[in-house]
Write a structure and sequence with these properties.
Length: about 240
């Protein structure tokens, strides 16, 4: 009887080890696939984009299977904090507030902060936005900038929305007069929507993007080495040229 019990326990232990090994073979990546060309859902219902291509190379270098979890942007960091994700990539900028709670990789991309508006809008400065409404995506650096007082002297209203595609529809309806975003996405949206144009307003600088991990992540040093190597080898530039052409 004791012998049978020991064999059963050993079998259960082996099964448990197998499940853990399977889990450890995967890199669970959170993203918000409403942000072309960084990440979006293609006609085959797959999440693709610049960020996804980079993560595929990172996962390969880590010898991991890439598992993409598509979520609303505002839920990405809470899910990472709850250990439901290994990393997040979604055009996310490292801020001092975020750095208190999460680790960031080295920067893999930098883009200019810009605005999207309907053509023939006559908006050239922040003063031209006085009394008007600016749309931003919930949980992004753009929402942080808007709420941290960059618009406070101009009586500008801030409308936070769950994603930029909704913001574009609100812009077309006239519910908002301008959208705050970054250059690559703005140009992509303007190409898809010819009635829109990209605007560069004074006082706004560039935005850096990095991969986010939980504090003291076991992947941080490895991912930084991988990002640096991909930069040196020109792989990230190849990905940029692929998606930004």
């Amino acid at each position: 009887m004791i012998h049978k019990i020991l064999i059963t326990l050993l079998m259960l232990t082996c099964l448990s080890c197998g499940e853990n090994d399977k889990d450890s073979d995967s890199l669970i990546v959170g993203t918000a696939a409403d942000n072309p060309p960084y990440e979006y859902i293609d006609k085959n219902n797959e999440v693709v984009g610049l960020d996804i291509d980079i993560m595929q190379l990172v996962a390969k270098a880590l010898n991991k299977k890439l598992v993409i979890k598509n979520m609303e942007f505002y839920s990405l960091l809470p899910s990472l904090d709850n250990k439901q994700l290994d990393v997040v990539i979604a055009g996310v900028s490292p801020t001092e507030t975020r750095k208190k709670h999460f680790d960031f990789s080295n920067t893999y991309f930098t883009s200019q902060i810009v605005f999207i508006a309907l053509k023939d809008n006559n908006i050239k400065t922040l003063e031209d936005l006085r009394g008007k409404t600016v749309a931003v995506q919930t949980g992004t650096i753009f929402e942080n900038l808007a709420n941290d007082g960059v618009f406070k002297d101009y009586d500008i209203n801030i409308l936070s929305l769950s994603n930029f595609l909704i913001a574009v529809e609100e812009l077309k309806k006239g519910s908002v007069q301008i959208i705050m975003t970054e250059e690559v996405q703005a140009k992509n949206l303007a190409d898809i929507n010819p009635e829109l144009e990209v605007k560069l307003l004074p006082n706004f600088e560039s935005s850096d993007y990095a991969i986010i991990m939980p504090k003291d992540s076991k992947y941080k040093d490895q991912i930084n080495i991988i990002i640096d190597n991909l930069m040196v080898e020109g792989k990230i530039n190849e990905i940029k040229e692929k998606w930004l052409k």
